[in-house]
Amino acid sequence: MNIEQARFNMIEQQIRPWDVLDQGVLSLLAVVKREDFVPAQWQALAFVDTEVPLPEGQCMLAPKVEARLLQELRMQRHERVLEVGAGSGYMAALLGYKARQVISLECSPVLARLAESNLRGAAANVQVRCADGATGLPAEAPFDAIVLSGSVAMVPPALLQQLSMGGRLVAIVGDEPVMRARLFTRVDESAWSQVDLFDTVAQRLSGFEEGERFVF
User: pTM of the prediction?
Assistant: First the structure.
């Protein structure tokens, strides 16, 4: 496989057509080597428009979803970011190039070690912690941005409370077959605006409440 051609095709044929037009994001995807964060047995899927399997039954988000979420956050270099669901560490690496500090929480010890290993030498301002991300890090809040790298039935109010004023949280919310990427923005001490960004489907993050389901 021609790695650079595959990377170019991923950016130009998958990501750009999905309304990812921020040149800073597109350039970053060429710099952070996605293949370095994909398990060896799945290298052929590194640039494919699909979720890539990880240990513990988890997955990396599809490339176009990662890129679109990153674009919608509109990160600034001085900002602090909390990620929930480190996975392989790829999204944390992307965030590390955009922000001043990134803390990535991963409840699986196996994945936390994998992400930490993959990030070694890639992003000095990224820290991986093995912890339940559903409650966030209230002792270290507020954060300018929070990223949920997976889907949830609903975003816990405790996470929204950890946003700074004007802070943003992106998450994929809902149940299959209908999930939507959603952007929350804190507008004052007790209010958050929200905008639905796009429809997609993603694997569930561990540790979050499922909420009530309708039974017919």
Answer: 0.94
Six token digits for residue 19: 């309304």
List the structure tokens of 164: 């700074």
Which of 67, 57, 63 shows the shortest CA–CA distance to 37? 63
Domain count for the chain: 1
- The CATH number of residue 189's host domain is 3.40.50.150
Residue 152 in contact with residue 170, Cβ under 8 Å? no
Please write down the HEC assignment for all residues of 142-168: CEEEEEEEEEECCCCHHHHCCEEEEEE
Q: What is the largest CA-CA distance in the chain?
A: 52
Of all helices (H) and strands (E), which one includes residue 27? helix 23-31
Token digits of residue 50: 């699909």
Residue 150 lies in a domain: yes
Select from 20, 21, 38 the least CA-distant residue to 6. Answer: 38
The answer to whether residue 190 is domain-embedded is yes
Q: Is residue 185 part of a domain?
A: yes
pLDDT in tens for each of the 216 residues of the chain? 799 999 999 999 999 999 999 999 999 999 999 999 999 999 999 999 999 999 999 999 999 999 999 999 999 999 999 999 999 999 999 999 999 999 999 999 999 999 999 999 888 899 999 999 999 999 999 999 999 999 999 999 999 999 999 999 999 999 999 899 999 999 999 999 999 999 999 999 988 988 654 333
Hey, is 178 helix, strand or coil?
strand
